[in-house]
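Report of the visiting student (M.T.), summer placement. My assignment was to run the structure pipeline on a short list of targets and document each run. The first record concerns Argininosuccinate lyase.
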Amino acid sequence: MAQLWGGRFTKETDQLVYNFNASISFDQVFYRQDIAGSIAHVTMLAKVGILTDTEKTQIINGLTSILEDIENQKLPITSEYEDIHSFVEATLIDRIGDVGKKLHTGRSRNDQVALDMKLYTRDEIKNIQTLIYELMQTLHKLMNEHLDTYMPGFTHLQKAQPVTLAHHLGAYMEMFKRDYSRLTDIYERMNYCPLGSGALAGTTYPLDRELTASLLGFYGPTLNSMDSVSDRDYIIELLSSCSTIMMHLSRFSEEVIIWNSNEYSFIELDDSYSTGSSIMPQKKNPDIAELVRGKTGRVYAALTHILTTMKGLPLAYNKDMQEDKEFTFDALDTVKSCLALFTGMIATLTVKKEAMANSAKNGFTNATDAADYLVNHGVPFRDAHSIIGQLVLFCIEQNLSLDTMTLDQYKAICPVFEEDIFEAISMKTCVERRNTIGAPGQEAMKKVLKMNEQYLSNLV
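After the run finished, the structure tokens were exported:
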């Protein structure tokens, strides 16, 4: 058992205790961040005169060689060490001798692990944003292609009013824009450097924390050493944001599953994003959408886990905080894989425009426009509402739609109707007359698409 804190102890740690306490099985993913933080720390120590330039160079060269050997798979990270910090420091001492023992001057594992987690989380925010950006680019492309693909809009999962596929996809575009923005907010709030906070009370060494923060790309140092080593708010915020991303993906997946069903047949998923049945040869299952929907619970669990872990912890660092990692790593990996797969799935699906349009026509989605027609011809709205209700009932009894009724049938219920009713309730008219910003009409949608294009170009 390789550990760096045995001086005060007279007995070896029990193996079960050691295994229970160790974190190297999962925190080894921090090796890049840990080495980067150590290089910045050593650079600062030399700048303030705690190390000589020669010592700095020796240590940095040693750390760089460790990084290269890990990357090239020449140096395995083994469970012989308690955590990644111990592994890096012990390996450094093995390679360059006693000067390697000066690496840890002026810092604690508490501020070291806080730094590593922040660096890792910061990188993951950017990775997730890249995937959201690619999803938004795909949505933007689909929206441009389907400005005139008419479909029913729903409330209560009942057909309500006609919209376009572009408009429907635009709702998800707005959700993912908010997701991207939330991640930016988290990045801005968390991007302050805890290194130099020590175990909880800083250090007597004349550290230049501003320099260390600058070298690592932070806006500056954190301002309270106790908070610095015990803050996990940014993880909670990130997992909350990831949960919202997954909720959006899950809602979208539910619609893809419904649209892909035989009853709807609005879309067909590409073979490369579908699976079959081991017993039913006709099946083509939307497994990717179903798994995205299912994996949402994993991310929710990670958020609940970290909230529960943190809720009773006094200041400052407590070993409970080691539990911030495994669930978080899993959640971040889940979100990234779901975003990538979902983007590929919707980019390759086939839209059945005629089926969508027919569904809108057969679901009385133009009933509101028929009522508006009467209002525009002098009928009070409440009376118009009642008249259209009678029309719908008549259609249901006669197995008709508002589009397939004859003018005589219209006039039998209300003589105000004229030949122009058919133009007034066409899918095209119903949609295109709605041109206030945010509505599905092409004029309004083209304005939104232009704004989205500018938005996406600003993210590059």
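The chain has a mean pLDDT of 94. The chain has 19 helices and four strands. I thank the supervising group for their guidance throughout the placement.
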